[in-house]
Design a protein that fits this description.
Elements (H helix, E strand, L loop, with lengths): L1 H27 L2 H55 L3
């Protein structure tokens, strides 16, 4: 029951954050960079829909579900550390 509540809560949080990505992109990018980088920005989501399952499948094949959770935690932690480096 707690896990189902956590899933619902995370989906609500994701729904609130998702529109902010495009707003932030258009707010922070200069006019020249908007035109130059919008194609990359626009293709990031479909590419992630291919790469994410491939990484998850690799982790499950070689280590089972335990490695999937550990690998996900490690990847998220690395992006957490990366966010401090690229922060203005």
């Amino acid at each position: 029951v707690i896990l189902l509540f956590a899933f619902a809560l995370s989906n609500i949080g994701a729904a609130l954050i998702e529109p902010l990505q495009e707003v932030y992109f258009f707010k922070e990018a200069s006019k020249h960079h908007k035109e130059k980088l919008f194609g990359i920005y626009n293709s990031a989501d479909p590419v992630a829909n291919i790469i994410g399952p491939c990484i998850a499948g690799y982790l499950i094949i070689y280590g089972g579900l335990d490695w999937l959770w550990i690998g996900t935690a490690v990847i998220l932690f690395l992006f957490f550390l990366l966010s401090f480096r690229i922060k203005d």
